[in-house]
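Go through this chain for my students:
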Amino acid sequence: MRTHTLLSTAALFSISALALVGCSGGTDSADKAATDSHGHDHAGDDQAHDEIVYKIGVIAKSNSNPVFLAAKNGAFAAGERLSEELDGATVEILWQTPAMEDAQVQAQYVEQLVASGIDGIAISCTDANLLTGALKAAVDKGVIVVTFDSDAPDSGRMAYYGVDDKEAGKEVMRQLAKVMGNEGKVAVLTGNPAATNLQARVDGVVEQAGEYEGIPTPVVYSFMPETATEAAAKMQQVQTANPDITG
């Protein structure tokens, strides 16, 4: 299961916002006070410095997953905090997330945000293969991209914020094996099989299971959408079809 804290999400957006400020520079000269590459007018009157707004688009996997609702709260909280901490700048968070997981919709949101003149994008990638092109195009246009929870490593993103997913999967199997006495039949239930973070976690479980002679290679089952209701239904279905599962 994926877990995030508001503190973790705040740290993510701190990275994004501070990177934007670092790239923007900042002097009082007339040359530096013109218009930036995204069309934001930083000149015009004596208080132009106070009117700088950095817009960060946040694209999570779905609005139906409690993990990402927590991420939403963390993003807006971080935006407010950074707006107070950054001298003469405001960080505005634009939440653009599909109702249910859909990588094509995420790619459309990336393109729309770039067209609107966004400064940065933070995204949890439902399918890296489908999103890499759109994210590369954003980076090529000067948009800072950060991935969180689920990466797109070939997209040119500035940073990825998340756990070591394969090691997390291994640790799940270690703990399960301990409870099972190192023997029995294991089933792995996962969400979207195209998500890089879940792929790595499943790989970790399966690889670690190979360390126990009494545990055969686990069978992997996936379910969509990633909701608690769907997960419970899938678990019941798998257990009914395979009553010999013990873990």
Remarks:
- The longest strand covers residues 52-59.
- The chain has two domains: 6-19+51-161, 165-241.
- The beta strands are 52-59, 89-95, 120-123, 144-148, 159-161, 187-190, 219-222.
- The longest helix spans residues 66-85.
